[in-house]
Design brief:
This protein is about 55% helix and about 5% strand. With about 270 residues, it is mainly alpha-helical. It folds into 2 domains: about 5-115 and about 175-265, no CATH class; about 125-170, no CATH class. It is elongated, with a radius of gyration of 22 Å. The mean pLDDT is about 90. This is Inositol phospholipid biosynthesis protein Scs3.
Length: about 270
């Protein structure tokens, strides 16, 4: 049987690179790092549903990609046969969960992806009611704070905001590694890897509940592949998508090192028995 990890790798690589090439050839992507463009609707949002940030896939799935991935894995792990519920599988999940937190949420302060934006020339911007943008202290972006006219020290004396106006500062410019492509790539490869223990056993030996769990994992992999295509086709610059993909592959690759070491050790013992 072909290694499902290789199949998943070929699939996600093809999807990301083909959709990214499509976005370049047909000019369908929007540079989400540009503070003058990022807060505006996608130019294709009126004609293409998947080019809108409010599409259901983005709102209910992609934004919670690792949560969905974790749930699918944990159900599959819990319903699999006892001999496949190994600590090494759980360690892979813990490792990738830590990577998700470090890159997207917190790393002794700002997440690593946020640090990358700043290190490459980014800044914290807020969109004003006039359509202009204004830089504000980085802490507003790090804490995901909402800006109101009450912060009078930030605005000029002539600034007038509509009643109830609130601004949401965001890190822009710099190199914004696509967090979505990073998470989707990592999730696809992780779920494929976690299917391998089940696929070693005949389908007829699986408990009924585990059959449903495996089906859910496969469905989620298909969903993440489609999400990778829409993100690659309509959002981020080409380089930001490619670096997100590379980061996802490398992070997954780190979880494979212990297995490779073990396999090489076993192979060496067979070739040179004591």
């Amino acid at each position: 049987m072909a290694d499902v990890r290789l199949s998943a790798f070929v699939a996600v690589t093809s999807v990301v690179f083909v959709a990214t090439a499509y976005s370049v050839v047909y000019g369908t992507y929007i540079d989400t790092s540009d503070p003058l463009l990022s807060h505006l609707p996608h130019p294709l949002s009126q004609s293409i549903y998947w080019a809108t940030k409010s599409n259901f896939l983005n709102v209910y799935f992609i934004k919670y990609a690792w949560g969905w991935t974790s749930a699918a894995f944990l159900v599959s792990w819990a319903t699999s046969s006892p001999d496949t519920r190994t600590a090494s599988r759980m360690l892979k999940w813990v490792t990738e969960t830590a990577a998700w937190l470090v890159f997207t949420s917190w790393f002794f302060g700002p997440a690593l992806l946020d640090r990358a934006i700043l290190a490459s020339g980014g800044d914290c911007f807020v969109s004003l009611p006039s359509g202009e943008t204004m830089t504000v202290p980085h802490d507003f972006c790090f804490t995901k704070s909402t800006l109101t006219p009450a912060e009078t020290h930030l605005f000029s004396a002539s600034f007038v905001a509509p009643p109830g106006w609130e601004g949401k500062p965001r890190l822009r410019k710099g190199h914004d590694i696509s967090g979505h492509i990073f998470l989707l790539t990592m999730s696809i490869l992780f779920l494929a890897d976690q299917l391998r223990p089940s696929l070693r056993h005949p389908f007829t030996h699986w408990p009924t509940i585990h059959k449903y769990a495996v089906a859910a994992n496969i469905a989620l992999i298909a969903t993440w592949l489609f999400a990778s295509a829409t993100t690659s086709a309509y959002f981020h610059s080409p380089l930001e998508k490619i670096t997100g993909y590379i980061l996802g592959v490398v992070t997954f690759g780190l979880t494979q090192i212990p297995s490779l070491i073990k396999a090489n050790t076993v192979r060496a013992e067979k070739l040179h028995p004591s």
